[in-house]
Amino acid sequence: MFIHKSTLVLALATGAAVSLLMATPSARQDAQTPDQRVAALKKNLADGQAALRKYEWVETTVLSLKGEEKSRKQMRVYYGADGKLQKTALAAPPPPPAPPPSGGRGGRVKSKVVANKKDEMKDYMEKAVALVHQYVPPSPEKIQKVKDAKKLAVTPDQSKVKLELSDYVQSGDKLTLVIDAAKNTLAGLSVATYLEKPKDTVTLDVQFGALADGTSYQAQTTFVAAAKNIQVVIQNTGHRPLQPTR
Quick one: CA dihedral 213, 214, 218, 220, positive or negative? Predict the structure, then answer.
């Protein structure tokens, strides 16, 4: 569940985006025309994505339930020759000691209930991960669909420009992109959506960082499923030049 920036900036080229950008004093003071900004941002994102392909890094995923950490795993992540993300599990921490067996029928029933809850949690998280991947990275085709449906809003905010895409994957959801107006870089990304039912809300927040050479990357992604009291935090650290596959 990793985020990499692509042609999402084409959304800025719509007439609605232009009118909103020109409607505020901060936008009128912008030295760049909308076309220039789009071109500069597209180049920045393309250059950044190309630069990131030269690196590998460590992805740490922590799953918490009701505020208590339940699992932690680490993966080696890099781009393969086909341009797709590759993930290889690193040494896993030792599993927690198994509880002593309980005798009698009551113990067997309790063990079965625990096993069923674990299966339900695994199924839920698999669905949640699949849903997140529909938002991250953003899809050019879905962005085009939102544009055509006139469900894109662009709001200048001092040094930032905010893009809000409604009904991006499903009715009632929202994908928000925050652009650094001066650098034409993606400064933040958030998602408000739901899993299966509207009341089963889930949110996603992505913070970006920059490597020593200026390459932008997803520093931390936080996924929250309020209805299930689940939080998943993914951190990307330890970036280094890509090593030969081992």
Answer: positive
CB 32 within 8 A of CB 183: no
Which residues share a beta bridge with 211? Answer: none
pTM: 0.69
Give the other-Cβ count within 10 Å of 152's Cβ: 20
Task: Give the CA angle between residues 176, 179, 183 to the nearest 5°.
Answer: 170
Euclidean distance between the first and the last CA atom of the chain, given in angstroms as a whole number: 23
pLDDT score for 181: 81
The answer to whether 6 touches 140, Cβ cutoff 8 Å, is yes
Q: Which pLDDT score is estimated for 59?
A: 93
What residues have CB less than 8 Å from 20, skipping those under 6 apart?
A: 27, 153, 154, 155, 156
Say which residues have a Cβ less than 8 Å from residue 101's Cβ, sequence separation at least 6. 107, 111
Rounded Cα–Cα distance for residues 217 and 3 (Å): 8
What's the CA gap between 8 and 179, in Å, rounded? 11
Calculate mean pLDDT across residues 91-100: 60
**Residue ranges covered by each domain of the chain:** 7-93+106-241
Reported as a single tens digit per residue, the pLDDT across 160-181 is: 888 888 999 999 999 998 888 8
- For 151, half-sphere exposure in the C-beta direction (CA atoms, 13 angstrom radius) is 18
DSSP 193-237: EESSSTTSEEEEEEEEEE-TT--EEEEEEEEEEGGGTEEEEEEEE
